[in-house]
Amino acid sequence: MINWSEIETVLLDMDGTLLDLRFDNHFWQRVVPDYFANKEGISFDEAIKQLEPLFKAQEGLLNWYCLDYWSEALGIDIVKLKVETQEHIKELPHTRDFLGAIKASGKRCVLVTNAHAESLNLKMQKTGLVEFFDAIVSAHDFGYPKEQQSFWHAFHQLEQFDKSKTVMVDDSLSVLKAADTFGIQYIVAITKPDSAEPPRIVHDYLAVESLGAIQPK
Q: According to the lineage, what is the superkingdom (predicted)?
């Protein structure tokens, strides 16, 4: 587990780490295809068939997380649609207690997300979690997603954290591998980012269902 006495900086992902990924999964797998189907006058299944290759082509790229990109590509006001469905935005179990414990410990806590600014702002307003962070950073600020080393080099120039005394928590294994490659000492994977799905099996890193399992005492 984590020796919290050695930690100076805590880097936390947002969706699937702090917030329930159930909202985003439902939004992109049901809400967007349904809206697209109605707009195009096609069936839901046909909409899925047309959207899947578009989504697949952008996986791991910054466009994957860019609401402006998808609004233009699909002819849908994605931000408006997110605002209309925001009541489904929820925190994962133990999120607030964990953040409170980190804040009380005096360690630097930074939200590090691939989320687009519009989505980030909406979720921070909805949850009120903004108060717990010393800094909030979106990959869109740098032009590289967290999956790429270019992001970590640019981010490190900004934050200047000691990699040997830093913990990174995320639900994305590709992001965690990038953080590991960059040299961050403590890597933690969230195995239950979506409350509606069973926990995933993760072998490569310290893996926990929720932040409660690693909360400093």
A: Bacteria
**21/61 Cα distance (integer angstroms):** 19
Residues of the chain with pLDDT under 50: none
Q: Which domains does the chain have, with CATH numbers?
A: 4-20+91-214 (3.40.50.1000), 23-87 (no CATH)
What secondary structure does DSSP assign to the chain, as a single string?
A: ---GGG--EEEE-SBTTTB-THHHHHIIIIIHHHHHHHHHT--HHHHHHHHHHHHHHTTTSGGGG-HHHHHHHHTS-HHHHHHHTGGG--BPTTHHHHHHHHHHHT-EEEEEE---HHHHHHHHHHH-GGGG-SEEEEGGGTTS-TTSHHHHHHHHHHH---GGGEEEEES-HHHHHHHHHHT-SEEEEES-SSTTSPPPP--SSEEESSGGGG---
Q: Calculate helix-pair angle for 32-40, 67-74, nearest 10 degrees.
A: 20
Q: What is the pLDDT of residue 199?
A: 97
Neighbour order of strands in the sheet with 186-190: 135-138, 108-113, 9-12, 166-170, 186-190, 206-208
Residue 217: its pLDDT value, please? 84
Amino acid (one-letter) located at 167: V
Q: CA angle at residue 17 from 154 to 80, to 5 degrees?
A: 85
